[in-house]
Amino acid sequence: MEKVNIPEIFAEDVFTDAVMQQRLPKSIYKQFKKSIEEGKDLDLATADVIANEIREWAIGKGATHFAHLFQPLTGVTAEKQDSFITAPKADGSVLTAFSGKELIKGEPDGSSFPSGGLRATFEARGYTVWDTTSPVFVRHDAAGTTLLIPTAFYSYNGEALDQKAPLLRSMQVISDSSIKLLRLFGNTTATRVAPSVGAEQEYFLVDEAIFLKRKDLIYAGRTLFGAAAPKGQELDDHYFGTIRQRVAGFMKDVNEELWKAGVTSKTQHNEVAPAQHEIAPIYANANVAVDQNQVVMQTLKRIACRHDMKCLLHEKPFAGVNGSGKHNNWSLVTDKGENLLEPGSTPHENKQFLLVLACIIKAVDKYAGLLRESAADPGNDHRLGANEAPPAIISIFLGSQLEDIIDQYVASGSASTSIEGGVLATGSSALRDISKDATDRNRTSPFAFTGNKFEFRMVGSRDSIASPNIVLNTIVAEAFDDASERLSNAEDFDAAVDALIAEYAKAHKRIIFNGDGYSDEWVVEAEKRGLPNLKTMVDATEVLGDADVIALFNKYGVLSPTELKAREEVKYENYGKVINIEALTMIDMATKQIIPAVIKYTKSLADTVLAVKAAGCDAAVQAGILTEVSELLKETKAALAALEQVTAEAAQQEEGKVQARFYNEVVFKAMDALRAPVDKLEMIVDKEAWPMPSYGDLLFEV
Ligand code: ADP
Ligand code: MG
Asked: Does the keyword section mention Coiled coil (predicted)?
């Protein structure tokens, strides 16, 4: 077997800092670094030199094209490729070129991207701007090799039309606010604080040939019909189970591609549902982590095809088994390497950590709806609140040790002890006893403290992780600023810190919940506590119109009221479009595949009944099945007509919130009503006669 040497191949497709230092003249490299540190523009002459080196490096890697890679409000990336070719010279020969201007700025005619009204088609101009804080890299695929330049995307009037611009703004905001707070604690050396983010990515793999026989998977990314297979995930035999050879070969290729692309692919395992898997890289700076998660998603899809499989990133490809999410691990780290979320071994003595923690608790409680919204996408509606994912209610899991400290603050205004982990006795002399963590894990909490980071588990598997990080950075920045203001003139700083922690703990204790987030009791309890329970994407999107949310983003310059309004519109629009595609796909499948197949089957049943009777035998069983199938067929036809009608009505609704609500409350229900009889039919009709592969074929044939 061919050997893989990770250090040797790692980042070979990335124009890394090391490559840059090696290739660029010292003065140019210094100027480039300075422009990043000071947030200043690069002059064109410098950019020209850099672009030229990047071109030579990329061509050395086989690149023929370059593209600005950006993240419009679609959840995925977009790019327009240009080759390096120049106009022919007089003798007919051509050269390659790549200018500083082309590196720094692009002008895609992207009038078709969602803009929530920010960009009418008559003012289609938009700009992509090079993000110098995320490295350029080359990608090898069937199109050849392409140089990719991470960029932010703006409208002609300078409004952000993407995920990256507000993310970078929010990173500046959280850095400034963190530094202000750190100064009060006597930290004079840190100059920047950046969120570190590690995204665990779940996905399904199915056989490509089987996938291609399902129109719902092709158009909607999820099954819209499908009776449960006899076996699901009940035996827990897939979770962490032995990885099947076909999947193992896929994972090997994915890892190699990711390592070459500079993504620190680290963990891989089978997930709970059959055919479900997970991959996680080592955490990185938030901006890089967001970009790399897009690379991970694209790589999973591309490599799956190479193995005659399809990678499903939809949040809920199959009813009845777990859906897929993304865990967004988030912490704050100074440029000197200090993690502000590191509690140390005696957290009750770590006042800076406790205040940071109290601020986060306050922020999450105050903006629970906004945080939930940041994970809203149409597919995620099937997960949040269902029994495998976190509920749609935001709460915080702290673990027994930190919860105990918070309780001490609530009771007495300070804390004097930290619960210790103790020892786990293995009960065997062959196994050494081990020390235990002070806190158990909790898998049902949407926002869980896990050692030295918070893990936000609501994010959907196909969605960008930009939004949750934009929200976390901004809401925590506001809480830090509030705290800094309160502490800046304190006479007795330590006492003031204790008082503030106690105040926040008391005021926002309701958001802390260490119990089972999947239970019905929690839903009741959360309501008593006054916590929002935004069950659907449409409910959640309304939060973007709240006055305090508009004010927050505006105050910090992360999103202007206009930009925010546009995002709200895009979300409503997106919801309606997705449900519309699903409804039309169901109509198509029911009309052209399912009903004709069932009619044919009833014909063969009827023939059988007649033949059996003619032979002088009792055809009661055959006739019984025929009656049952015919009844369900009737139900199907009626439900189909109803779905057709409401889908047509939906198109007539006023665009935006009203239309999204209609899709959510009317069309979505009509889809369920059509699915029910069809799934029953699938259980009765001869498998040979059923017009598409079953759940069993999809989930167990990889
Ligand atoms: P889990 O405990 O959730 O099973 P891991 O400990 O493997 O998972 O971590 C999950 C993700 O969290 C990984 O991407 C990991 O690199 C990332 N991570 C670990 N520590 C931090 C941190 N301090 N800040 C942000 N992300 C982190
Ligand atoms: Mg995790």
From this structure: yes
- In angstroms, rounded to a whole number, what is the distance separating the alpha carbons of residues 279 and 301? 13
689: DSSP letter? G
- Rounded CA separation 582/674 (Å): 12
Does residue 4 have a pLDDT over 70?
Answer: yes
How confident is the model over 563-603, as pLDDT tens digits? Answer: 999 999 999 999 999 999 999 999 999 999 999 999 999 99
Neighbours of 143 (CB within 10 A): 10
**Rounded to whole angstroms, how far apart are CA atoms 76 and 119?**
19
Amino acid at 595: I
CA atoms within 13 A on the CB side of 409: 29
Tokens of 579: 């449900």
Rounded CA gap, 68 and 688, in Å? 49
pLDDT digits (tens, 9 = 90+) for 136-172: 999 999 989 999 999 999 988 889 999 999 999 999 9
Q: Measured from the CB, is residue 157 less than 6 Å from ligand 1?
A: no
Please check the confidence at residue 239 and state whether its pLDDT lies above 80: no
Show me where the domains of the chain are located: 6-162, 170-421+435-559, 575-700
d(CA 237, CA 517): 24
Max alpha carbon distance in the chain (Å)? 103
441 CA distance to ligand 2 middle (Å): 10
Minimal-distance CA residue to ligand 1 atom 24: 331
| 474 Cβ below 6 A of ligand 1 | no
Rounded CA separation 149/135 (Å): 7
CATH topology of domain 575-700: Four Helix Bundle (Hemerythrin (Met), subunit A) (1.20.120)
> What spacing in Å lies between the alpha carbon of 330 and ligand 1's midpoint?
8
Using a 6 Å cutoff on CB, does residue 263 contact ligand 1? no
3-class secondary structure, 516: coil
DSSP 38-87: TTPPPPHHHHHHHHHHHHHHHHHTTEEEEEEEE-BTTSS-EEEEEESB--
Q: In this model, does residue 122 exceed pLDDT 70?
A: no
Cα 202 to ligand 1 centroid, rounded to whole Å: 15
Are 51 and 13 spatial neighbours (Cβ–Cβ below 8 Å)? no
Higher pLDDT, 392 or 442: 392
| Percentage of the chain exceeding pLDDT 70 | 98
Residue 455 Cα, ligand 1 centroid: separation in angstroms? 8
Q: Is the ipTM of this complex over 0.90?
A: yes
Signed CA dihedral, 466, 467, 468, 470: sign only: positive
The 10 Å CB-count burial string (b at 16+, else e) for 240-278 is eeebeeebeebbeebbbbbbbbbbbbeebebbbbbbbbb
Cβ–Cβ under 8 Å, residues 143 and 298: no
Six-digit token pair at 76? 């995925």
**What architecture (CATH level 2) is domain 6-162?**
Roll (3.10)
Residues 167, 172, 176, 181, CA torsion sign: positive
| Six token digits for residue 227 | 């009776």
> Which of 267, 279, 283, 455 gets mutated to test ligand 1 (max ligand atoms within 8 A of its CB)?
283
Among the atoms of ligand 1, which is closest to the Cα of residue 280?
14
Kindly give the number of the ligand 1 atom that is closest to the alpha carbon of 283.
16
403-428 pLDDT per residue, tens: 999 999 999 999 999 988 777 777 77
Q: What is the pLDDT of residues 483-513, one digit of tens each?
A: 999 999 999 999 999 999 999 999 999 999 9
The residue whose two tokens read 């509606």 is: 381
Q: Is 283 in the pocket of ligand 1 (CB under 6 A)?
A: yes
CA distance 452 to 329: 10
Q: Which fold has domain 170-421+435-559?
A: Creatine Kinase; Chain A, domain 2 (3.30.590)
Angle formed by the axes of helices 466-487 and 164-184, nearest 10°: 30
Atom from ligand 1 closest to the CA of residue 267: 7
